[in-house]
Amino acid sequence: MTKTFAGLKLSCKKLVLVLSNTKLLNRMNPYALLFLIVIGAFFLLVIIWIRRMRNLSPTALTQLDAPCGTVLVRYSSPRKRGREIFGSLVPFGEVWRTGANESTTIESSCPMKVGGNTLDPGRYALFTIPGEHKWTVIFNRKIAWWGAGLNTKPPHNPAHDVARIEVPVENLSETVEELHIELHNEPEPQLTLTWDKTRITVPINR
Q1: Are residues 43 and 66 in the same domain?
Q2: Are residues 86 and 183 in the same domain?
Q3: Residue 8 CB: number of other CB atoms within 10 A?
Q4: Between residues 26 and 189, which one has the greater pLDDT?
Q5: Residue 135's CB: how many other CB atoms inside 10 A?
Q6: Residue 112 and residue 44 share a domain
Q7: What average pLDDT score do residues 41-60 get?
C-alpha cells in the first residue's frame, strides 16, 4: 500500500508541474487540459480517501525476535466503535482480510511450521475465516495491497494458500476496542488475535 500511495503522490506532483507550465498550457488542446484537471482531481480524492481510511484503522506492527531470525506482522487495526463485530460486520464462514485496508502480512526470516506445513522464509498474507466456535487461519503467498472497507470481500485466491490451520475461539469477559495481533514466545511461539470479546491463538513452531 505504501508503494501505491507514493505512486499516487508522485503522479499528482507531475500533474501539478504540467498545470503550472503556462507556455505548455497555452499550446495544449482544451479537451486535453480538461482531461488532466479531471485526472488530477481524481488522484487527489483517492489520496484523501486513503488517508481517511488510515486514520480510521491505523497501521500496527508486532515483532518476535528469535535466534534464527525475526517474525514481523503488519496490519491495520480497526476499532469496534459500538458495532457488533463477529457474526455481523465480519460474517461467520467467510474469508476475512484479518483487519482493514491492505492485506495483513506475516514475514519471517526463518522457516515456520504452521498446521503441519513448513513455510519457507518470506512474507505471506494472513487471511481468516471466523466462526462462532473455531476459526480457520490461512497463510497465502499472494499479497493484495489494498481492499476497501472492513467487511469488503478480500482478494483471496485459494490457489496461493500455503497453510491452513483451525483454532478454537476463546470468549472474553471484557470488550477489546481495537484489533490487536501479537506475537509471543511463551509458553511457545504463537500469534494471538484479539478483538471485541474474541481471541484466537495460532501456534507458530520454528
Answers
A1: no
A2: yes
A3: 16
A4: 189
A5: 23
A6: no
A7: 61
Range of the domain at 64: 59-203
Given a contact cutoff of 8 angstroms between Cβ atoms, the answer to whether 165 and 202 are in contact is yes
Q: Kindly provide the residue ranges of all beta strands, DSSP E only, lying in 38-104, ordered along the sequence.
A: 59-66, 69-76
Q: Are residues 161 and 69 in the same domain?
A: yes
For residue 1, the model assigns a pLDDT of: 46
Indicate if 49 and 90 belong to the same structural domain. no
Q: Are residues 161 and 117 in the same domain?
A: yes
The C-alpha cell at 165 is: 490451520
Tell me the CB-side half-sphere exposure of residue 8, using CA atoms within 13 A: 18
Q: Are 77 and 177 in contact (CB under 8 A)?
A: no
Sequence-distant (≥ 6) Cβ neighbours of residue 163 within 8 angstroms: 114, 115, 117, 119, 138, 139
Provide the residue type at 1 as one letter: M
- Please give the distance of CA 110 from its chain centroid, rounded to a whole number: 22
Closest-CA residue to 92 (of 158, 157, 21, 169): 169
Residue 63 C-alpha cell reads as 515483532
Determine the pLDDT at residue 68: 77
> For the chain, what is the domain count?
2
Q: What's the predicted TM-score (pTM) here?
A: 0.72
CB atoms within 10 A of CB 202: 21
CB atoms within 10 A of CB 22: 7
